[in-house]
């Protein structure tokens, strides 16, 4: 498939817009999106304008938000209003968050009154909450109705709703009583009361964190979840495709941070090189400054090093192994946090597990290190290496397991505390441990 | 919430099964699953037996597969058959994959004939393909029908189907012609022909890789996708909640491998310490053996080190920075691969980007290193550090960007080539570069 998309890109480069226009009518909307996401900014603007209007709206809707913004910047006002109007309220708000405030206000003014008021509802919740991601367009079913009445309402009012497959059931005060599925309604006799068809609802409060809500929706396999205010009144609905979006963003963020860079928030090939560089340079500088600690530690022990240069041979191996061990623990715990398998309250349980895992790993590697280094460089050196591996692995696993939990407790992204941060921390402390053990064992 | 679940666990420890049984009736199925996933093996078996039979089936269905297996091992044959029967064919097959073959066969024999034949269909496809994850229970709509006929069929035959919200439309040869949504059917007049309601279908071939299919389903926001054979005949359907499962497993795997360990395939707190240790020790040993390369490199340059011990002070900083840079590139490219933003064919585009990013980062850090090291240790040393940083960053970013693509081309998991692997690779090559530059600049 990518091969075919590259052929299309070649048509663009060769200045054959007519043939490209023809070719674009022959591939699906999804493939068109993939095609656009692989182009540079200018090529994408050209290609986008070649799409028939109906297709363009669908494609625009599925594009990455950073790319939507670029396309909007390149269009005339009247066209922009058209695309803007076609978005769902929650997607529209997410796009507006990225625009200069003056542009966003102007966009809002062009919307038709109904869409404007829906957008206003979503805009009222703070960024990062599920309120910002939900849809205020839903069909609620009164609990005293029967299946037939509910189906009639869905046929009548369902057109604009975000979903009609999962429907919140409410009482006269609009308080959430449960959910009913369209499948259940269709399978029931006309006269069956809704109360008999409805099931208990997992719901989220509107100012709840969006990522947690998305994880809940995915974990419990819901197609949609009602969103309520604090009094349990239904204010919106949140669907599994919103959840997928949120989780994909969160996971890209975690992956980037674990690798020690900021997330790009856009497809790799469509990101300018300078922007990729900027996403990395700050972390790299911070870590390099942290790493100067290792220079200072070694400086302190320079006399030890001078009297026994062989000690310096093992420095990369020891700190590398420490970094790897810490990294393994941090990654495991970060993922468990993201999946909700552990929480900040589990600090002691996690610490106790990682101390044991680290010590076992350290004993295994330490024995190996003792034997190999001992055979080659003498048993004195072997003992130093073996003991250091035992100490470093235990320390690194414990620190690696704790840091993400600590980060979460401090309200920071736990993934930030994974790999590169741990490596830098373990490098410095590991060297101190190494030289202290060396001095003690070798009597330097 | 976790606080409340810990209170329940306390009831178990205090030997109050009656109070726990009572408390369990008051929490939702989802919360019960969370509760069980935080317990040890024996406690979980006890708690599970306290659940009312109807709830137990629902809970069993939502449990992590590794935990399902443990529970089944602790039950009597008659009970096992009951739980086994309640699973969907695809979930059943996934569980059977983990059982000893003899047990799996016995289970299969206990199933009722219809379920057994459905399970047989799924079992016929190889592990890792979408055929293994799809459901063979779907409702297909003939293209020559109208909306009313389709709705009648759904009401009649929909009960056992995996989903009724997205329905494959087929011709008389059962070839896939498109999909129609239940929403579209409900919103249409009775007489509207299906051909007018149906839309183009994104479908997957049955022996396609499951992860790619899941990513496609999530990217294109489909609630379900038809699965066809090579002749384009519909053989099954694949829903978004299957996709969510597959992606969660794939992402846990990527996260673990990026951290240099094997995925646990089960919730962290419910995993025995020895098993966590085993998931890490192999990688750690492999990397440690790789790291002995650094000892050998340093051994070769020992005379250089002896004549100028100050060079050894910068070893952790230089290789750490190299590791971080390589790691950033590898993580970005691995994620882009997972999201389908780049493919193995993009090797040259990725390489060219990473060379530029690496060189820019190297120039920035190199200038800083030159100034700081120059001021403290003299301009000779400053030049060595600055030049080495420039070289290492360029090299590390290029290698980090290439390795995941190479891995993919070789059919390995690209995430394996991320962080720890790159760090070890960069450690050894970085040291060589460092000492060569030092010898050249300092005339040693």
UniProtKB/TrEMBL annotation, chains A, B:
Q: What does this protein do?
A: Acts as a magnesium transporter.
Q: Where is this gene product found?
A: Cell membrane; Membrane
Assigned keywords, A-Z: CBS domain, Cell membrane, Magnesium, Membrane, Metal-binding, Transmembrane, Transmembrane helix, Transport
As for membrane topology, the entry says:
Multi-pass membrane protein
Pfam families listed in its UniProt record: CBS, MgtE, MgtE_N
Q: Does the keyword Transport apply?
A: yes
**Which Gene Ontology terms cover its molecular function?**
magnesium ion transmembrane transporter activity; metal ion binding
Under the subunit heading, UniProt states:
Homodimer.
Q: What name does the UniProt record give this protein?
A: Magnesium transporter MgtE
Membrane-crossing segments per the record: 281-301, 357-379, 385-405, 417-437
User: Per the UniProt entry, what species is this protein from, by scientific name?
Assistant: Candidatus Nesterenkonia stercoripullorum
Q: Source gene? A: mgtE
Gene3D superfamilies documented for this protein: CBS-domain (3.10.580.10), MgtE N-terminal domain-like (1.25.60.10), SLC41 divalent cation transporters, integral membrane domain (1.10.357.20)
Q: Member of which family? A: Belongs to the SLC41A transporter family.
Domain CBS, chain residue ranges per copy: 134-197
Q: Which domain of life is it from?
A: Bacteria
């Amino acid at each position: 498939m990518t091969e075919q998309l590259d052929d299309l890109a070649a048509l663009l480069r060769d200045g054959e817009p007519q043939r490209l226009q023809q070719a674009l009518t022959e591939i699906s909307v999804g493939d068109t999106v993939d095609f656009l996401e692989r182009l540079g900014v200018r090529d994408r603007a050209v290609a986008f304008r070649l799409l028939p209007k109906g297709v363009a709206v669908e494609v625009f809707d599925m594009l990455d938000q950073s790319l939507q913004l670029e396309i909007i910047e390149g269009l005339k006002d009247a066209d922009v209003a058209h695309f803007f109007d076609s978005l769902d309220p929650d997607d529209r708000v997410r796009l507006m968050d990225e625009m200069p405030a003056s542009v966003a206000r102007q966009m809002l003014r062009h919307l038709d009154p109904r869409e404007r008021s829906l957008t206003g509802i979503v805009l009222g919740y703070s960024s990062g909450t599920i309120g910002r991601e939900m849809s205020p367009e839903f069909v609620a079913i009164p609990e005293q109705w029967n299946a037939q009445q509910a189906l009639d309402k869905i046929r009548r009012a369902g057109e604009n709703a975000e979903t009609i497959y999962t429907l919140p059931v409410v009482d006269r005060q609009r308080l959430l009583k449960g959910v009913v599925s369209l499948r259940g309604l269709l399978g029931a006799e006309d006269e069956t009361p809704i109360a008999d068809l409805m099931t208990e609802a997992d719901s989220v409060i509107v100012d709840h964190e969006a990522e947690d809500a998305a994880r809940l929706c995915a974990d419990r396999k819901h197609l949609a979840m009602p969103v309520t205010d604090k009094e349990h009144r239904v204010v919106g609905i949140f669907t599994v495709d919103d959840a997928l979006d949120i989780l994909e963003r969160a996971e890209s963020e975690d992956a980037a941070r674990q690798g020690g860079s900021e997330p790009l928030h856009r497809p790799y090939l469509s990101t300018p090189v300078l922007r990729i560089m900027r996403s990395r340079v700050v972390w790299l500088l911070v870590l390099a400054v942290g790493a100067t600690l290792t220079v200072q530690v070694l400086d302190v022990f320079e006399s030890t090093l001078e009297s026994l240069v062989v000690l310096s041979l093992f420095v990369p191996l020891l700190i590398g192994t420490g970094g790897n061990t810490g990294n393994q623990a941090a990654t495991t715990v970060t993922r468990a946090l993201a999946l909700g398998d552990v929480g900040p309250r589990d600090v002691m349980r996690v610490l106790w597990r990682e101390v044991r895992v680290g010590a076992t790993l350290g004993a295994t590697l330490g024995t190996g290190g003792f034997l190999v280094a001992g055979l080659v460089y003498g048993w004195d050196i072997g003992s130093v290496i073996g003991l250091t591996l035992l100490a470093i692995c235990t320390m690194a696993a414990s620190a690696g397991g704790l840091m993400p939990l600590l980060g979460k407790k401090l309200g920071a992204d736990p993934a930030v505390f994974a790999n590169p941060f741990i490596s830098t921390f373990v490098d410095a402390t590991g060297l101190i441990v190494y030289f202290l053990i060396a001095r003690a064992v070798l009597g330097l």
